[in-house]
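subagent[fold] <- orchestrator: predict structure for attached chain, return tokens only, no commentary.
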Amino acid sequence: MKKIIILTVLLILLGSLGAAAETTITFSAGQDATGTTTELIELFEKENPDINVEYISMPSVPNQQYDRYVTMFASQDSSIDVLASDIIWISQFAAANWIENISDDISTETKTKLLEGPLEANTYKGDLYGLPWYTDAHFMYYRKDLLDKYGYNPPETWTELINQTNNIIEKENNSELNGITYQAAQIEGITITYLEFLRGAGGRVLDDMGNFVLDNKYRDNGLEALQMMNDLIYKYNAAPKSVAAANPNDSKIMFQNGKAIFMLNWPFAWAQLQGDNSIVKDKVGIAKIPHFEGHPDTNTSNLGGWQIVLNKFSENKDEAIRFMEFLIGYEAQKKFSIDGGHLPVVKEVYDDKDVLENSPYYKDLFDVFMNAFPRPTTEQYPKLSSAMQSELNATVSGVKDVEEAYNSMLNKMSEILE
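subagent[fold] -> orchestrator:
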């Protein structure tokens, strides 16, 4: 009789567990034109039938995402559990106690599988506040067919790029063909572009101790960098005026439609440039971003990438951690690389034959990806970048004189850092 009662109780318990309602967590990230994010969520739900993931697609422009998140955090809103964070937001979000310290939730074994640089970018004052989802490095795409046609190697300096551009456009006799497209809208993209020109000119914003050095030691380098960004448009006619309103997707579309010889952009564009609807399919090469004369050993590629962080006010933290760990698993990272066109953060994925077959440039530019330089590391970076964006855009838009905009930018930056 006792056995029957015990068995009945067990059956009731098991039945109640089986009928347990799903936990729904929300995940927000920028728009994914490839659909890979949705496919990964479906795979996770299949492996974790007790968790349902609601995907919230955010605007593709980081600044707009940032504004929404700050508003959400300020009101202690728990409606989003896991969110994709730009690499530059981690220190600010952590300092404000808006995202969860996950140091004790992620095993040492998991951490050692990840690339050191992107993992370090998620660390604030010794604690882990996020996980790298995919890494990025800005580099230069070029029309391999056109450079081969006229006997050019990818330009190493801006002077070489200007000369190649002028010659190719003249001989192609194509009024719609531009020399180079890059991001110069008043968004984070223009700060990234300027920092790469600055780096290529031998300059920096902060030194290793965090001191502001752009307004003194590297003042001339910084002015030279901004002058070149402006001259590419108004002096050399190498870049169209439309770059002053261009975001990464705008640049990609122009290049994909065969209207530019060179393009500065992120790896996401590669898969789409090889699509059947791309005019430049199988005609694209990639190279390092040019530098200025006299700075040949400078790595001019900017470190980027997106992280996944846990909302401090989430009510589903255990389930959210499981989802985060899934996204940095080997198979998820492999799929995100092949189908989504993103650089993986798991070291072993770079040796995967399928990944290398899909993206052979990973091997050729591995050093560029791994040695890309970070943006200025300071909790004030969002404010710093915002101040830079307005003045940088003013000059590439033709609204302000280069030197006037540059001096105004330095004054704003100095006030913020002080």
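orchestrator: received. Logging for downstream: Residues 139-300+380-417 form a domain with the D-Maltodextrin-Binding Protein; domain 2 fold (CATH 3.40.190.10). Residues 7-11 have pLDDT under 50 and may be disordered.
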